[in-house]
Amino acid sequence: MKEETGLTCDRLYSADICEQFYETDRDAISILPVFVGFVDPGAKVVINHEHSEFCWVPFEAAVGMVPFAGQRHVLRHVEAEFVQRAPVRHLLIGA
């Protein structure tokens, strides 16, 4: 997070969900854990050289921006479990 955005998480959680997808070039299924980080709302984003821009959008807009069904599912899960309700404390990393 720090490397890509310059942001430091106040709290970091396991999202209790994995994104999985098939990679044709490797003939493999990738299973990637998802994490949720909370940052100071006034923190300044500083993107690194690998990126050209960023934007903050509401969840519903983000759901419309990602191309894959698995990504949309993950975003809806994060909104339901970390925005619409308090995160489960057992998922907190480094507590």
Automatic annotation (TrEMBL):
Keywords: Hydrolase
GO function term, MF aspect, one: hydrolase activity
Name of the protein in question: NTP pyrophosphohydrolase including oxidative damage repair enzyme
Organism: Sinorhizobium americanum
